Amino acid sequence: MITKSGALQYLSKEEIALVTPDTSPRGCGIEGEDDSWDLGTGAGFYVDATTEKWKNNYNMYSYITSELPQIINASFPIVRIPFDNTRVSIFGHSMGGHGAIMAALRNPNMFKSVSAFAPICHPSECAVGKKAFTEYLGANPSAWSVYDSTELAAVYKGEMLNILVDQGSEDSFLKDGALLPDHFVSAVQNSSKFINLETRVQPNYDHSYWFVQTFMEDHILFHSKHLK
């Protein structure tokens, strides 16, 4: 994110501090944590794991929404003098987009805005999401809905939430059914009084950081508008 997204020039201009947490714990010594790209190291899916194998280390939801904000507030004068903890937004790419939207929907007063590049929108209904949720949360799908943006959006009744989603038309994950943005759009219709959603399909773009880099300025300006 820091080296590939091209965000720094826009952040500097808008005077926004960007925090880029990792996508999972590292080096936990859990059997199989490095066996595949979509589970374990690099793929925490922003849940608090409940299964025996993962629950002691894989608590990315609590880390992002509770522990990390406390660390930032206590450690970085740039956001502390003066600090207004209501001027916070969140965004992400792919699995990170899932995490950003999900965290915002679960914490209605925490973020001014949320945006995502090609997010995994309905993890309970796609292969990569089912794999991760089964490992981290168990085989019962009833435990998955609290970490699923589509399920959360369908019943959201919190503070008005502004969401921007960009999706490339030639994204292989979109074509393989891993992202399911149409499910999320349909779910938001049930909560349209509480969610202001803007979706954009970018012709000929894939899932890569070239896609992210091209539209990064739009996302920074989107958040800047709501933060300021």
TrEMBL record:
Catalytic activity as recorded in UniProt: S-formylglutathione + H2O = formate + glutathione + H(+)
Protein's name according to its UniProt entry: S-formylglutathione hydrolase
Active-site residues from the entry: S94 (charge relay system), D171 (charge relay system), H207 (charge relay system)
CC per GO annotation: cytosol
InterPro entries: AB_hydrolase_fold, Esterase-like, S-formylglutathione_hydrol
BP term (GO), one: formaldehyde catabolic process
Cross-referenced NCBIfam families: fghA_ester_D (TIGR02821)
Gene3D superfamilies xref list: alpha/beta hydrolase (3.40.50.1820)
Gene Ontology terms, MF aspect: carboxylic ester hydrolase activity; S-formylglutathione hydrolase activity
Catalytic activity, EC: 3.1.2.12
Organism name: Zancudomyces culisetae
Record field: transmembrane: none
Primary location recorded for the protein, binned into one broad class: cytoplasm
Sorted UniProt keywords: Cytoplasm, Hydrolase, Serine esterase
Compartments, as annotated in UniProt: Cytoplasm
Top-tier EC class: hydrolase
The family this protein is said to belong to: Belongs to the esterase D family.
Pfam families: Esterase (PF00756)
